[in-house]
Inverse folding.
């Protein structure tokens, strides 16, 4: 029986995933509809596992999944879903010696674009969308990390998929390339259901109407971005000195300290919260040194 609502592209009911004794996802209930939904959470929260289930790469240990109105447990249904699904994993293997054009053309063949003329037109379209046309004849092995990421995104866009599943799509992209990507995904979200996992709260704030926050394999929030940000109103403040009572704080470029916490001191200079502020408050714990270090490494990689 299909319990998916008419407007939903993907539905998960009681979905759990275990790897041995480790539980990666626990009793996930979600419905995903047209538009762009961001997926946030700390390392190990279960984001990639959830995306792999949505992409039919992995089956849940328990629970029910419906994608595009079909049950992917059935082989014929799974094949049908994959024809209209776009997937960008964290790491995508590139066949040795392929040029950019040949790789994306190869992926189109796998999606059963058998006629060469319309297939090549589609390959050129998606390469142009992500700004990869200038290096379409170059071998992938000589491309930069950001260029490879754009090629990987291009193959996910083949056929204007009804469900687009993206794992860390902005990794390795510079600010200008990220802005282009936001335009591409915003346009896709007007026609399709786009789900993207990221560590970049600014990408979600700029692009997504809805956000899902996973922590420890469980959904901590699933709703509109603007409503999540509203939960942090009155809980973010600036001060000249760090406040030990804050959940977390940092020194800004102005030399003042940005604080996030449940109880600002009396007379605090309150400021408009960001999505990151609300995210930190929802998780209810400060960022660890390892998490901050990971963010720094991602920032360095994106700028290089």
């Amino acid at each position: 029986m299909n319990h998916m609502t008419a407007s939903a592209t993907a539905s998960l009911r009681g979905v759990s995933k275990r790897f041995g004794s480790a539980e990666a996802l626990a009793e996930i209930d979600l419905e995903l509809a047209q538009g762009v939904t961001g997926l946030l959470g700390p390392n190990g929260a279960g984001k990639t596992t959830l995306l792999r289930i949505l992409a039919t790469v992995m089956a849940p240990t328990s629970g029910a999944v419906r994608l595009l109105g079909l049950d992917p447990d059935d082989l014929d249904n799974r094949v049908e879903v994959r024809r209209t699904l776009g997937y960008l994993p964290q790491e995508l293997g590139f066949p040795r010696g392929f040029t950019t054009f040949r790789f994306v053309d190869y992926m189109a063949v796998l999606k059963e674009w058998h006629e060469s003329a319309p297939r090549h037109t589609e390959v050129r379209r998606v390469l142009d969308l992500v700004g990869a046309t200038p290096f379409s004849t170059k071998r992938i092995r000589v491309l930069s990390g950001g260029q490879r990421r754009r090629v990987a995104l291009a193959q996910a866009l083949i056929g204007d998929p009804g469900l687009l599943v993206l794992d860390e799509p902005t990794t390795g992209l510079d600010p200008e390339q990220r802005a282009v990507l936001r335009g591409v995904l915003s346009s896709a979200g007007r026609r399709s259901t786009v789900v993207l996992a990221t560590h970049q709260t600014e990408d979600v704030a700029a692009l997504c109407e809805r956000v899902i926050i996973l922590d420890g394999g469980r959904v901590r929030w699933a709703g509109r971005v603007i409503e999540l940000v509203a939960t942090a109103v009155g809980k973010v403040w600036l001060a000249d000195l760090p406040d030990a009572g804050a959940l977390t704080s940092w020194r800004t470029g102005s030399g003042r300290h940005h604080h996030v916490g449940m109880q600002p001191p009396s007379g605090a200079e309150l400021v408009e919260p960001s999505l990151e502020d609300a995210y930190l408050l929802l998780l209810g714990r400060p960022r660890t040194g390892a998490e901050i270090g990971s963010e720094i490494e991602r920032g360095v990689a994106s700028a290089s």
